[in-house]
Write a structure and sequence with these properties.
Two copies of one chain form a homodimer.
Chain A: H1 3-17, E1 19-21, H2 22-29, H3 33-45, E2 50-52, E3 55-57, H4 68-85, E4 93-96, H5 100-108, E5 115-119, H6 122-130, E6 134-138, E7 141-144, E8 149-151, H7 153-160, E9 164-170, E10 173-175, E11 179-182, H8 185-196, E12 198-204, E13 216-219, E14 226-228, H9 239-243, E15 247-248
Parallel strand pairs in A: 4-5, 4-9, 5-6, 9-12, 12-14, 14-15
Antiparallel strand pairs in A: 1-3, 2-3, 7-8, 10-11, 11-13
Chain A binds a DNA duplex (30 and 30 nucleotides) through helix 3.
Amino acid sequence: MLKKERQAYILHQVNLHNKVLSSSLSSEINVSEDTIRRDLQELAEEGKIIKVHGGALSHSFSQVHFPADVVYSQNQKKIIAEKAISLISNGMFILTSGGTTILEMARMLPPQLKATFISGSIGAILEYMHHPNIEVILIGDKISKSSKITVGAEAIAKIKQIRADICFLGTNAIDIQHGITDNDWEVVQLKKAMIESSQKIVCLAIAEKINTFQPIQIGGLDKIDILITELPPEDPLLKPYADAGITVL
Amino acid sequence: MLKKERQAYILHQVNLHNKVLSSSLSSEINVSEDTIRRDLQELAEEGKIIKVHGGALSHSFSQVHFPADVVYSQNQKKIIAEKAISLISNGMFILTSGGTTILEMARMLPPQLKATFISGSIGAILEYMHHPNIEVILIGDKISKSSKITVGAEAIAKIKQIRADICFLGTNAIDIQHGITDNDWEVVQLKKAMIESSQKIVCLAIAEKINTFQPIQIGGLDKIDILITELPPEDPLLKPYADAGITVL
DNA sequence: CGGCTTTCTGCGTTTTTGTGCAGTAATTTA
DNA sequence: TAAATTACTGCACAAAAACGCAGAAAGCCG
């Protein structure tokens, strides 16, 4: 088993179960605990997991601990959310994934807006529920504790029954070559279904996610209609995407 | 259980109940009181809780003054929750409605418990998600903002596909003549479906709901297997229900 | 192709960390 | 003030981490 492969597996396990033990990983993959420890350390340095004595935890596990950095990217997300909201009008059926950017958008929805929001993300649903004029449809199925969304065949089947006007995807990684990618298999399946069920696909991504990629592909750039970042549309970083036929906001 | 994990659990408990006892935490998590004390100390040093003799308090507690009757009915619900939890064992499929009593039960589930919980109540789902060993299945459909649960034909159809071991119903009103009743049409439909899909039906009701009724019937007393209140089972108020063949706890 | 470097992995040893226990001091409660 | 809880201290033991090292594998290059 290759190092990269191993780390991808570890990351997946962490995101799935919220925690991993060095000892159990070691026996699962058949490498020494030393190697596991080194992998965990690398992943921790990249900020993908939180290393603790005995194993590692997923980032979402200890939500509380996101200091100064959070406020900074909060503002970025507000800019993105504003642009996204400008695409919504009354009466629309809107499909959304989860993720902090989507949550920010949900919070900023204008109170007069009348629309139907469909999502499997618990966090997003909670936000939508606060709004007076929004109909909320919850996609049900097994809940993934790490990503706090519903996942599974039922959820996907349900999404496939829908014909939404527009779909907002919180984007974990996007680049020219691989399109949009993610690191959780089940989340990927869900997003794929969402793309199939929507007339227009909007990707919300903060700039640091641009030109990065993750192990699993959701879809190529050709699936995307609109890309929203906190940068001005004419930023050179975004030029390749505009050239690929995507509307950049 | 990892140290960080344990501390996260403790913190969650503190924020939930506003206080924790070292002794009860120790037996819940199965570590020595010494370890708990050291955890509390660390959390206190980080300013996340207030350590006191015998346990710890939440920060918010020191400020807010709870009206006595809130605490009182909180305690009633805790008694009910405890009795209800005694009916649950590992591996069970458990269907639950919403309501504050159910929420209290969800909060008090022992961390070692491995079971599958199925619900359409957003609040309950959020609680279940915090527990390390519980599988959570979310019933999806349109969300009723007033009751904060999913309602509708899809939700009912989904429930009908389930064969649960036990079903816990938060009860709004119960009396000898009308059985269990409620005042929300859609909630009633859902609870009816839940009753049909479960082997054993448990009603959780605080004493003040006993011998009251609401406009819409969910089901007669014959549908109920177990009735749980905060009163001792031999309380005369409950005698008619025991006579009707219901196990009263 | 052969030699060189670099990277990766596993092993043994030393440190550090986490946990429980016993005895004692401090505190609550009656 | 006495009895009972709870807190603290030092210690012992186990588990995990860190460190240095050596062999294996992969990549590079003339």
